[in-house]
Amino acid sequence: MIRIASIELTKYVRAYVVIIFCFVLLEIIFLTRVDAKNLFHYGTFDFETFKTLNSTFSTLLISAIPMTIILNICNEFKNGYALKLISNGLARVSYCKSKFILSGALATVALLLYLLIISYFLLTHTTTYFDKNLLISSSIEILLFSMFLSSIAVSLSLLFRSWQYAILGYYVYTIIEAFVAGRFEEGTPWVKYLPFTLVTSIFELRAVPEKLVDYLLPASILIPFCLAIVWVCTHFFKKADL
Amino acid sequence: MQVIELKNVSKQYRSKPILNRVSFSLNKGEVLGILGPNGAGKTTMLKIICGLVKPSNGQVVLNGVTPTQIATIFEDQRFLGQLSGIKNMKLFLNTIGEKEFSFEKKFEQFGLAESKTVKYKVYSSGMKKRMDLMSIFVSGKRLFLLDEPTNGLDIDGIIAFNKHVSSLKNEKRSFVIASHHALELEKVCDFFLLIDRGTVVSQMSKEELVRNFDSLESAYRSLIRKNVQQINF
């Protein structure tokens, strides 16, 4: 059984690594060329550089997950493999469950990759700043938010079953939300509680929760948001003509 | 004993009728052949029976067979291209809840021994069809819904397919086969359903076919062909 699960997971991890690599190239070429240069030239990083590094890698790892999941699941529908499983006796609910479990496994892979990359940098670069607590909280956040984003990606893939529409649904929503957040951030306090803005702000350490209680507000927004999307999408998937 | 019964099943896509009040039943150990022109609704009917498509009206009753005991082959369903034949088979059978068994002999039986470690995407259409057939014939399913099962198969493959159907039929397993090949259907089926534009034109047993027509093709020609517009390529 473990061998079978590993076959399926390998398929996703392979695509995940390729997508991360593409994102890294895009990031280096278009966005953080100067920062990256500084980082590699000076070889020493302080708190500010560590923050940049931390948020850059965590954002990369997290943002590659939805793309990986959407492309893989929608490909299963495009070539008919998912339909083959369902028409040969696999219940639709079981298919959904297996994809959510797989997305959880992929979130764990994201966490391991994060630890691997950060450890590599900490070993190869001299640092004047290192906070164990920050690393632990970032790791937990990567795991949780990977699960959050991947469950939304799975839901959208099941709902649309076409990667074009699923990617459009996912990324257009995040872009619109980011635009709204950027446009109305100062005047309207509710903007910072929009789900994806909240996730991003926590990642970029703009609003690091200090106590356990501080996690309650983000959790009370993100968990119902996620559950609602999962429920609606799987409900329509169960009723749909495939 | 009836395995499936369709009661006045209709299906519309955006108000376009695909199936119109289709009713038939199939007993245990019987093979039903569905013959009809392109777009007649054969595939939709099979998809409704296995639950991929929901009927707009009517009812599908499964008797003594659960949805997990249904095996299907559809033209638009494929295995995963980046995995080898053997990995695909393991993943597929485990995912649908079939028990583990030795695959080596099965690959030999289905003429795929040499290509079992080759990636599925480089298989020819005939090899892909053999994989499809192997995946369902090795399983312990009770009801088989096959859409164009012999398309792409060579003569040996077709002979092997007919043998498999006959032996599984003797084990009281039931088949619904939709095909364009009247000759192939005639060889393996006990009953025939001729459909055109979503409506059942005729239902007959093999005996009735022999009594009233020269062959299934002549039945098709006299019952359906006259309704279908002449096609000139």
Structural class of chain B: alpha/beta
CATH homology-level superfamily of the largest domain in chain B:
P-loop containing nucleotide triphosphate hydrolases
The structural domain count of chain A equals 1
Q: Give the strand content of chain B.
A: 25-35%
| Total number of helices of chain B | 8
* Share of helical residues of chain B: 25-40%
Count of beta strands of chain B: 9
Q: Give the N-terminus to C-terminus distance of chain A in angstroms.
A: 28 Å
CATH topology of the largest domain in chain B: Rossmann fold
User: Spans of chain A of 5+ residues with little confidence (pLDDT < 50)?
Assistant: none
Number of domains of chain B: 2
Distance between the termini of chain B: 46 Å
Order of helices and strands of chain B: EEEHEEHHHEHEHEEHH
Q: State the helicity of chain A in percent bands.
A: over 70%
Q: What's this model, at a glance?
A:
The complex is a heterodimer of chains A (242) and B (233). By secondary structure, chain A is mostly helical.
Commentary on this structure:
The complex is a heterodimer of chains A (242) and B (233). Chain A contains nine helices and two strands. Chain A has 242 residues and is mostly helical. Chain A has one domain. Chain A has a two-stranded parallel ribbon. Chain A starts with a helix and ends with a helix. The model of chain A has no long low-confidence stretch (mean pLDDT 79). Chain B is 34% helix and 27% strand. The termini of chain B are far apart. In chain B, helix 5 links the parallel strand 6 (143-147) and strand 7 (174-179). The model of chain B has no long low-confidence stretch (mean pLDDT 86). Chain B has two domains: 2-65 and 142-225, Rossmann fold, CATH 3.40.50.300; 82-141. Chain B has helices spanning 42-50, 85-95, 104-109, 125-137, 155-170, 182-188, 206-212, 216-225; strands at 2-13, 16-27, 31-35, 57-62, 70-73, 143-147, 174-179, 191-196, 199-205. With 233 residues, chain B is α/β, with parallel strands linked by helices. The chains are: A mainly alpha (242), B alpha/beta (233). The A-B interface holds A 1, 3-4, 7-8, 11, 76, 79-81, 83-91, 98, 239, 241-242 and B 47, 50-54, 67-72, 74, 76-83, 87, 90-92, 94-97, 135-136, 139, 141, 145.
